[in-house]
Structures are given as structure tokens and as C-alpha cells.
Design a protein that fits this description.
This protein is an alpha+beta fold. It has three helices and seven strands, in the order βααββββββα.
Length: 129
């Protein structure tokens, strides 16, 4: 299992964290309030239970410091633009994985394999819900 579901311990008080938070930054940017050890794990959290669209959020800081957020949705809750000249007139297609980054990501083959494994584990959790 690659995903870590345990809640990380906060290293900053809420007030300290809010003073450096990236709430108004571009999507994918977040300020982790956790230890360096936890930042490097594939941290997962089940979200969307109340809204009806269950998703798994996966956060990780890569070895080069890029912050990554993956959102996995079993129901294909994301829409992405496809060729608007498609023969059936379809302009959007459902997607299951959304990835946001705060900068360029560079992966080793091992990290790439881990990302695929993390997505697969999230999919299994969503299917079991």
C-alpha cells in the first residue's frame, strides 16, 4: 500500500499556518502543515461524502519540492474539453483524475510507478464505498 490515510500532526498553530497559507494562490498550491516526513508520503483523504460525489484527495511533495494534488473520482466527475468538431458533436468527456501542480514536476521511474499505484488504491477505496 502506497497511500497513507493517517492524519498528519500539525507542526504550526492554526494562526501561524493561516499567516503563510496559499488560499488565494493558483490551483495546486498548498502550504502543508505537517512534518517533512509526512510531506513526502502519498497522503490520502476521502472527501465529498456529504456532497454525493465521493473523491480521494492525494497530496505529496516531490523530491524536487513540487507540491502535487491529485483528485480521484470514481464517477468521472471532471469534465475535460475534447475536439469540438467530433462527429457526434461531443465537446466534453468525463475524466477520473485531476492533477494540480505548483510548478514543474520531475519524477523518477519509481515515483511515477508510485503515483500510478496511489491512483489505483484510491480507485479501489472509492469502489468499495
Amino acid at each position: 500500500m502506497i497511500l497513507s490515510w493517517d492524519k498528519p500532526e500539525k507542526v504550526l498553530t492554526t494562526e501561524q499556518w493561516q499567516s503563510i497559507s496559499a488560499d488565494s494562490a493558483p490551483p495546486g498550491v498548498y502550504v502543508p502543515n505537517m512534518s517533512d516526513e509526512d510531506r513526502l508520503k502519498w497522503k490520502a483523504k476521502l472527501v465529498g461524502k456529504r456532497g454525493g460525489v465521493k473523491q480521494v484527495e492525494i497530496r505529496k511533495t516531490t523530491n524536487n519540492g513540487t507540491q502535487m494534488l491529485l483528485i480521484v473520482s470514481a464517477e468521472g466527475g471532471f469534465r475535460r474539453k475534447v475536439d469540438k468538431w467530433h462527429p457526434d458533436g461531443k465537446e466534453y468527456a468525463d475524466s477520473n483524475v485531476r492533477i494540480s501542480l505548483n510548478g514543474p514536476a520531475a519524477f523518477t521511474f519509481e515515483e511515477s510507478d508510485q503515483m500510478q499505484q496511489a491512483i489505483h488504491e484510491a480507485k479501489l477505496v472509492l469502489q468499495a464505498e
